[in-house]
């Protein structure tokens, strides 16, 4: 049985956090005042100097400790277990049904009816405008 652990590859963690934040290498490079190639090298590095890690963490909006401890598995676990309405028990399996508090079709019909009313008011205003203009023309 192989008990080898995954190496703590800081560069990959930085890359993944950057991607999750929706940030491109170029944007991170600009914020750090370095080239995009430098960011690429950092993300390929297994280790990084603490000072540089602090700078990267600050730009990414996380702590250096968060980068060091980042793992995809824990992210997935947190997302699965921290949604609204989940049970917090250690051994519980939670199932939540998110029910709408309104019928979407009713809202669509309401919007259609409102649109119809607005169109009728617009049509009536146009008819009044035409009648007024015809009255002005007849006076001349």
Automatic annotation (TrEMBL):
The lineage of its organism: Bacteria, Pseudomonadati, Bacteroidota, Flavobacteriia, Flavobacteriales. Pfam families: HTH_3 (PF01381). It comes from Galbibacter orientalis DSM 19592. GO terms for molecular function: DNA binding. The keyword Coiled coil applies. The keyword Cytoplasm does not apply. Keywords: Coiled coil. InterPro entries: Cro/C1-type_HTH, Lambda_DNA-bd_dom_sf. Residues 14-67 form the HTH cro/C1-type domain. This is Putative transcriptional regulator. Gene3D superfamilies: lambda repressor-like DNA-binding domains. Residues 105-136 form a coiled coil.
């Amino acid at each position: 049985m192989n008990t080898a652990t995954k190496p703590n590859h800081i560069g990959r963690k930085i890359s993944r956090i950057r991607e999750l934040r929706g940030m491109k290498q170029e944007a991170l490079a600009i914020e750090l005042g370095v080239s995009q190639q430098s960011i690429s090298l950092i993300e390929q590095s297994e280790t990084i100097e603490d000072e540089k890690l602090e700078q990267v963490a600050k730009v990414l909006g996380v702590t250096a400790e968060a980068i060091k401890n980042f793992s995809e598995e824990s992210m997935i676990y947190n997302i699965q277990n921290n949604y609204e309405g989940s049970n917090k028990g250690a051994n519980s399996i939670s199932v939540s049904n998110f029910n709408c508090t309104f019928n979407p079709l009713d809202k669509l019909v309401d919007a259609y009816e409102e649109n119809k009313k607005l169109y009728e008011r617009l049509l009536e205003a146009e008819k009044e405008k035409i009648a007024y203009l015809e009255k002005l023309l007849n006076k001349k």
